[in-house]
Structures are given as structure tokens and as C-alpha cells.
Amino acid sequence: MNEKPKAAIYWLAACGGCDETIVDLNEALLSVADAVDIVLWPVAMDFKYSSIRSMKDKEIALSIIHGSVRNSEHEEMARLLREKSQTVLAFGSCACFGGTPGLANFRSRKDIFQWVYRDAPTVVNPKGVYPMTETKVLDHTLKLPELFEKVYPLDRIIDVDYYLPGCPPPPDLVANAVSAVLEGKLPPRGSTLAPHRPLCDTCPRNESKPPKIEIPEVRRVHMVEADEGKCFLAQGLLCLGPATRSGCGETCIRVNTPCRGCFGPVEGVDDGGAKFVSCLAALLSAEDEAEATRVTDGIADLPGTCYRFTAASISLKGKS
Amino acid sequence: MSVKATGPLPFSPKLVCFTCRFGWGYLNGSKAIESLHNVIPVTCSGKVDASHIMEAFKSGADGVLILGCPDGECHFQNGNYQARKRVLLMRKVIEAFGIEHDRLAIELDMDPEGSKIEPLIEGMRERISRLGPLSPKGVTANQACTGKENLR
User: Fold this and answer.
1) Interface predicted TM-score (ipTM) of this complex, two decimals
2) Which of A123, A149, A278, A297 best tests the B interface by mutation, with the highest count of B CBs <10 A?
3) Fewer CB atoms inside 10 Å of the end CB: C or N, chain A?
């Protein structure tokens, strides 16, 4: 009897939305389940890590890993699955670029601990109890994974063969990716399994874009009722479409919400956030210094907006 | 302004300087500028993309200085204004990544001889040297995971 190829689906620092999008394959998921032998999928099925550890190297045909690497357990599982897998797919924005958890890289680990366990107004912790990596209870030592100083995209920890971005990736791209792996029709290693063009190219509002966009003042979505047919940038609302890869199906745009950039930078660009800054600078209609300062100072959380999904993919020195 | 006059710098900062060819040092030919360390002449300061600024910091620069043409005198209409807006925005971005905004500066002026370039660079190096070096944050998870830090 021919053995079916083995597949693993695993989450690191993830919200579960990527698992949800796999479930959203609906009936197609049944044919995937027929074609492969799922050996690990914590959110849906009960398997033990020990069974993965006992496998031969490269025994798993495909590991779909979502979530960023945030703690020592994530690192350990990422390395284990890399060792046991022929192909690793970084699935979703967190695995590809760090995702929204990567915004934590704007703070130090110490800042985060102090806020979460001491300073936040909702915290009552008079004894100053902090999570520890080791605690002795009676005769036993209990262990917890160690939170890293930073959030890492998957490829900073292990070699990644393919990338599928999105928060979460849409079911059509997931189905394409899975069938490409099963049929062995994959592009060169390192490829992103999504279109190369920027979102503006496929945006249903592209036609409404004026020849020259001029933003006298940046507005936020809760401050205005956005015109449903008009380019967001032309309305002064920050939309990351010009610097973001297409393929999402424009789902945010269709519910009158500007692009937040979950598909990451377009093909050939490493730092999509910086590219958006350059684009935005050109759209701001401020020539003299005072006006330019006023307009740029009026933008709320520019770094968080430009790097909402990609902050962890930027390696910079800095003050801690 | 001279570095020697203020004594030795606490550390020797690496500065990347982009200069507009139309406003800075064109009378002396490009060789005089290119002999300066890490000075990159560009066609227009508006050519300096935000990703070039990030790339300089990623490559180990302690500071970035952009020299463009004065108000209203850009050869390409408004490239200097574009550069200024980019710098104002990028100063906010680098701050979030833990890099003080004063490590990125722009000067809009005219200097055909190019004699001001070196003093401007030295002045900025001196300001940066007071800020101290940028320290590498964890590059790999193993390095970041020290377990020794007091988190309280």
C-alpha cells in the first residue's frame, strides 16, 4: 500500500485566524484530507509532539506554519518541523513578516512585562507576581517557555521554502498553494505564492483616483464617513494599497475600509513600510517647512500604520 | 566647526550623507565630494527614498544627513520639498524602531564649492557622538533569549 504524503499544520504566535481560513476551504478540505495524512494540527486534532520527534528527517512532505516566533517553545517547534519536513510554507502575515504581534518590537520586553503585569490600569498585582520560566511547586519544577526580547518572522529562525501572506490568506490562494504542493507544480524556492502586482492595480476604486492626489490633512477612518466609491487616499485616509501586494481579494476595500497592508510588500521590495512613507510624502500637499511639519505631526501613529504587519521583518540597531 | 576643537568624540559615529549634485559641490567636480567617506551624490535630494534612509541604518550607519537645494530652487521643481517631507515622516518612523530622530537630518541650502559639506558632516557626527552608538538588538532568537534580565 502506498503511503500518503504527510502534512503538518502548526501555530506559533498566532491568533487562530489562519487555522480558520484552512477550515474555510470547506468541502475542498475533505479532498486534501484524502490526499494527505495530517500528522499534526493542534487546533483541530489530537497529536503528540513526541510522535513528530520520533519521525525520520524529512518524513513530512509539507509543514504549514503560521504565527510569528515569540518564545522559546515557538523556536523549538519551528526547528523540529524544519528538520522533519521537506517543504515549509510560511502561512499568513505573522509567519511571513511577524504580523501585528511584531508591533511589540517597538517596545522592549521589559516595557511590555511592566505594563502587562504592573502598570496597566486593569491590573491588580500587589504581590508583584510575574511569570517565571521555572517555578518550584512541592517537589516539582514547573517550566514555561521564555518570551524573547523580540518577535521574529519565521524565516529569521528557520529556512522557509514558500510564503503565503495574508491576515488570513484567502481560501483561493490557500487552495492553489496546497494543490501546487500536492501536484509538485511549485515555483522556485523562496517564492511568494501570491500575485506580484500592488493592490492599487486590482482595486475596484482605482478608476476614481484623480490624476494627482493631494492630501492637505491626513484623516482617520473614525473621523469621516468615507465615500464608498472613491480612492481612500484621495479622501485623505491612509490606505497602504500602493505599497502592498495584491491577492487578498480587496476584502477590506469592499467593506469601505482602507488597506492595512497585511499582504506585505510587493515583489522585490523588502521594506514596504519605507516605500509607503515615500509615497505618502509625495501625496502630502505641503511645501514650506512649517506646513510640512504641521501635516506630518497630525498623523497618528505613523510607524504603526506603515509597519502594521511588517515591523518584525525590519532588523535595525537601536536604543533598547 | 571642528572636531578637534571640542576634543575627541566619545565614539566615532558613521554618517551617511546624500548630496544633491545641483546644489552642492558642482564647481569642484564630483571627485572632491566622492573622496569624502560615505558621501553619496544624487541627482536630486528628492531621489533619496525612505528605503535608502532605512538601508543606511540597516547597514550600520549611526546617522543620515541629506543635503538638498534651498526653498524654491530645486532643479526638478520640488524634489527638495519631497525630501523634506520624507525626512519629517522618517524621523517618526526611526524613533519607533529605537533610533533617536536627531540621527536623521536634512539641510536645504546651496554650496557650489562644496566647502560646507565636510563641516556639516563633522557637526552632525559630533551631535550623534553625544547620543552614543546604536546597540545591536538581538539578531537571532538565541541571542535575544538571555533569561538573565530583570523584568520588574
Assistant:
1) 0.92
2) A278
3) N
